[in-house]
Amino acid sequence: MFSVSPPLLRNPGMAKRLPNFYAKYLPKWDFFPAAFLKDGGTDLEKAIRLLNEQGTSLECIDDLSHMVANLFKHEYAEDPLFNTFITACGQVSKKLKQTILACLAPPKVSFKARFMNLHRLVEWADKLLKHVPQNQAEDAPMLAKLRASLDQLPECEPFIKRFLRDAKSMLACQKILKQEGVEPCNLRAMSEVD
After folding, report:
1. Backbone phi, psi, residue 135, to 5°
2. What is the pTM of this model?
3. Could you tell me where the beta strands, DSSP code E, fall in 24-114?
4. How far is 109 from 51, CA to CA, in rounded Å?
5. What is the pairing mode between strands 2-3 and 59-62?
6. CA 68 – CA 149 distance, rounded (Å)
7. Predicted confidence (pLDDT) per residue in 44-101, tens digit
């Protein structure tokens, strides 16, 4: 299997130039790739299709992490609470950094790859909200400071619960596939995931 660097594919017209590159250099390599691992984009797929039209028999394989991220994106990108959640996480991060509560700040998630690691951010928010009881009459000063830093995060709880419900089994199956591959016993294990 052969993986192509994403920056290489971001260049305009790369899908048209890639077949020429491979036609020129593949015969010089000591190996011939059977498949190319892609990130869900169409550039590499188009390049492989063009190469196959010239007589090769290459395959494109979608990277599992990117497939799962694209499923999450398809399901949640238009959810109004998703944008509220992302904004609230940013606000919580700003309010907690450079304070004694900085250890409770959300994990960093790249904007471009936000759906790849969204589960980390949602799990963080779920844990934080479980440890900050709402409607507390008398707060300890630190708890009051933490509660004041939450911004709109408590209003995002329906999104958090729904995402965790959906992501739990998807991520468990992804882990099995990545670590052990597609085998009959693994398919049984994945069917037993909650």
Report:
1. 60, 40
2. 0.72
3. 35-38, 59-62
4. 36
5. unpaired
6. 31
7. 778 778 778 877 777 888 788 888 888 888 899 899 999 999 999 999 999 999 999 9
